[in-house]
Amino acid sequence: MTDPKHLPRLYGEKEIGKILKRATELQHEEPSAPSADRMTLQELQDIALEAGINPALVRRAAQEIDTGAIEMSTWEKVVGDELLLVREITLPGEVRAEGFERVVEVIQRETREHGQPSLLGRTMTWRAENPNKTRTIQITVHSRDGETSLRLEENLSQFAGALFGGVIGGFGGGVGLGVGLGVGLEVLGSALFATLFPMGVVGLSYIGARQIYRAVTKGRRRAMERLFEHVLAEVQACLVEKELPSGDRPPELTAG
To answer: What confidence category does residue 240 fall into, taking pLDDT thresholds of 50, 70 and 90?
Structure first.
């Protein structure tokens, strides 16, 4: 049986925070220590791996910072989540001519939507929206100058407007005012109840709408992640290295 005295000590969450904070302070106090003010993405991933954090999540967080996805706008703070979901990446290599058609096939298979693809030069754009326009998806593959960029975005602004307008205006305003005025004034004869009850119902409706929106956005984000991985895999399969112009190619070696 292992002696409890020889077991490694386990640190709690607060202790971990204090240790890391103190270690950072000591790092800055060391005159010969390398600066930790800047780190590459690979260094961050290595640290995350040692801390038991999935490096893929670090890459995703870095991408969200680069695209500004973490900084929420005023309306996004109101609804409780992002209004525009974005995933993008840039890869070395260019998509071969027939590759764009294959990418469109993968998109339509995975989304089960018959969107409108268009090809302008070396840029392919695929766009789809449902009949009530509460869901709009756009996928762009741009391949040029030895690089290919893939971008997926889903605009949820119309969905948010319909959701909050329906829940707050329809339920909150309709039920709140109907019951508040009907019961408060006609039955109870209380102007206070007629005023406070609608306000309370509208407030609860707003909270409920936020919860619904966050749940839906979470599901859409997961669906986008799966779609992104499938499209990315097809784009990578269609990539070819950019060929050098004839004048820039190295001379061929001849035997003898």
So the answer is: confident
